[in-house]
Structure formats: structure tokens, C-alpha cells
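[SOLVED] Need 3D model of a four-part complex

Original post:
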Amino acid sequence: MAVLSFKLNEHLYLRDPQHTELGQNIIKNSVNLIDQLGFEHFTFKKLAEEIESTEASVYRYFENKHRLLHYLISWYWSWLEYKIDMATSSLKNPTDKLKAFLRIVAEEKKYDPTFEFVNEDALYRIVMDELDKTFLTKWVDADNKDGLFISFKSLCKKIASIIVEINPQYPYPNGLISTTLLAAKQQHFFAKHLSSLTNLKDDKKFHQNLYLFLESMVFNTIRK
Amino acid sequence: MAVLSFKLNEHLYLRDPQHTELGQNIIKNSVNLIDQLGFEHFTFKKLAEEIESTEASVYRYFENKHRLLHYLISWYWSWLEYKIDMATSSLKNPTDKLKAFLRIVAEEKKYDPTFEFVNEDALYRIVMDELDKTFLTKWVDADNKDGLFISFKSLCKKIASIIVEINPQYPYPNGLISTTLLAAKQQHFFAKHLSSLTNLKDDKKFHQNLYLFLESMVFNTIRK
DNA sequence: TTGCGTATGATAGTATTACTATTATATTTG
DNA sequence: CAAATATAATAGTAATACTATCATACGCAA
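Solution:
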């Protein structure tokens, strides 16, 4: 079986976790632990206990837990971009491409056996709950210089260029896409926890309705 | 001079800070300190040093710093709703009302002498940087039960009802408004720190252009 | 086979944080 | 003046986010 992995920015880690067993264990179990405990209550100590290693060993892979979160979320965006590339490569019409993009953003994230050591639905929940913590810190600018956000930026840029294809006059393609990506996870969060802030319900039809919400917003906004 | 104050949910505090000098000092200086240090590096100890009081005294007003943040942000939403009420009360046409709302959301927040003990532009920066930390925690559901989010919900609800007036067929008024409110502060944040995620520049015309971005998104999305 | 480098484990230690508790003092109110 | 209440002063605790040191185990090259 072909093994697919993503090349992530080197500043995300001290030692590449994809190359060693301990590294893969760190990734796998940190996804599960952060999902369970929430990022604030997740510590390298607890992770070390879980994988029967030591705090010091984890610190040899990641400078701190914040960078580990960056790593996981970058992985998520790379994975999403990969899925979007697969879905759009055969399409010619930019409108179809944009729809395919929205469908993948809105769809349910399920465990994908292509990546044995990442639990995608847990990772999706982490993105939903913790994404903003990667940039809402005093280190944004430094992190940005280190290139920690390139996965997200790359995805945004790609979709923005599709919008430009559809309507070269629309002046805010990047803003609209970043808004759309963040709205997708916010609406899911609100459906779960603060239901009066959304009209979507956290039920079986959620992903379908989220798609309709995003589609109407994006296509109406950019039409000439 | 008339003194205006907002009635905020009682669960936000242990002792109402608006009633005492120490309380007002806590509010005033916590706004400035959080703005300077960021919420993570802000502590009650540092605040106590600043106001020449003690940690224990601050804890008599607020259960913890998280609730204090809730308090400040609830104050902000109440203030915004008040400004929107002022601006829209004389308007009959729901389209005009919605535009007035968007103008206030997008406009620059300046120091307003009506509220001597809150520095509104510092508070706006806090909202921009720290808002999401009020709900992205393991206590969302408990906090929600305590009513800590009513200021934000109340604002959302009010604006959503204007959308319903304009187009009763549009199915996602609440989702669109929560998206708009969050997009406003996200785009400002991106303009400042991650400029490739927006098409707006953090310059003098920022607020004007943010208005145009939001207006085109909202009005195009809801039109019949 | 020896020896070397590297990855990991074991253990200890530190400054800071987010509190809780207790007691003393000052101020307000009845 | 007495009683109630707010605040100050001080101490203490468990957890966190690291850093440092040393020992061991493993693979590989001479």
C-alpha cells in the first residue's frame, strides 16, 4: 500500500515525528488526548504517561505544546487541500471547482485508512475547538515569520484564485474564503453549543445544510 | 452628566464592580493590562500590583480571570447594541437599519467619554484578540447555562430579525449575522497579522472597506 | 569486536500560575 | 460606640511548562 505523507514546514517540529515510531506515537496519541481533554488541559506529561515515554522525550520532538498544535492543524489543512485537489483536478469549470471545494469543507470528516496514524474525526474536532488558538497569541507575527501558517494560506490562495476565475471583478476573494473556512467550523461549534447563533442543527443533515448555507453565501456574494 | 451603565448578567461577577471604586479600578486596569500583555500573560497578581491592591481582593469580585474576560466582552456587546439602538431607532426601513448596523460593526472604536472607566479602543482590541477564548473552552456549556453569552446572543437576535423583515424567505439569518460579526474582527486581525488571508489593508481606509466587504456579503446573500 | 554517535529513559529541579485560607486592620452604618 | 463589612497582608498548595543531567540501549563503521 502506498504511504502518503505531507511535507510540513520544518519550523513546526524539532525532530520530524513522521520518521520514527516514537514520533508517530506522539502524533497519534496527542490527537486523541487533545480531543478528550481540550488543549488547555493537555500536557506533555499526560501525553508521556499515555505513550509510556517521558516528558523530556516529547520535548525532543516539539518545542512546546503550542507548536504541536500548529503541527496537527497544518496537517489538517494539507489533508484538506489534498482532498480538494483530488476532487477538482478533473473539473474544468471554475464554478464546479468552487462547489467541490465547498462540499469538502462542509462534509463530515471520517476516519480515513490512508493515514493510519491520524484519527481524522478527532482531528477535525480539534480544528473546530482549537484552531483559533494557533493565531490568537502574542507570537502570531513570529509564528507567521517561521511559516507556521503556510498550509492554511496555501489553501486560501488556491480557492481565492478560483473565485477570480469566476468573477475577476469581485474585490475580496481572500477575505471571503478565509471567512468561509472559519464560518464552516464556527457554525458547527454553534450548532453544538450555542444554538441561537446559527440556524443549523447538529443532526444528520448538518453537513448538507452547512453546504447550502455556504454555497448561498459564497455564490451570491461573488456574482456579477 | 448622566451616568450610563449596563446591566450585565449576575453570574459574570461575584461582587458588582460598577458599584465600588476598587471594582471600577479592576475593570479599568484589567482592560489596559490585558490589552498590553494579552490574556494568557495577564494575571490577577499583576493586576493587583497595578492597582496597588491584592490578589485576594480581586478574587472577591471575579471568580477567575476567565469570568473577568467574559464580563469585559459582555460589556462590549452591550455597548455595541446600545450604539446600534441609538443609530437605528429613528429608521423605519429595515434595509437602512441593516446598513446602520453594519456601519457600526465596521467602524473604528474610539474612546467615548460617556464611559469614563472603560477604554473602548483597548477593549475593542481585546475583543479582536480574545473573544473566541470566551467560548472555545471546556466550560462553554456550563457558561452558557449561566447566561454568560446573553449579550452577544441578544445582539445577534436583534439583527437577525431585521434580516427576516427584509427577506422572510432567507433561511439562515442567525448564522449569517454571527458569521458577519466574527468576520469583522477576523478580517481586522488578518489585516494586521496575516495579510494574505484578506484583501483589506490595515490603513486609514480599513473601516470603510470592511464596511463594503460586509455589505456586499450580507446584502447579496439575503436578496430574493 | 570494539567503539562511537544518537535516541530515549529516568530523575530532579525551577519559576510561575491559579488559586485558597487566615488573620488583621480600616471604614461604613445603625 | 458597636457591629458589620470591605480590604490588606501574608502564607501556602498543586499543577504547569519547561530545563538540565546522567545513564542506558541500539545500530553501524572500522
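Edit: The mean pLDDT of chain B is 95.
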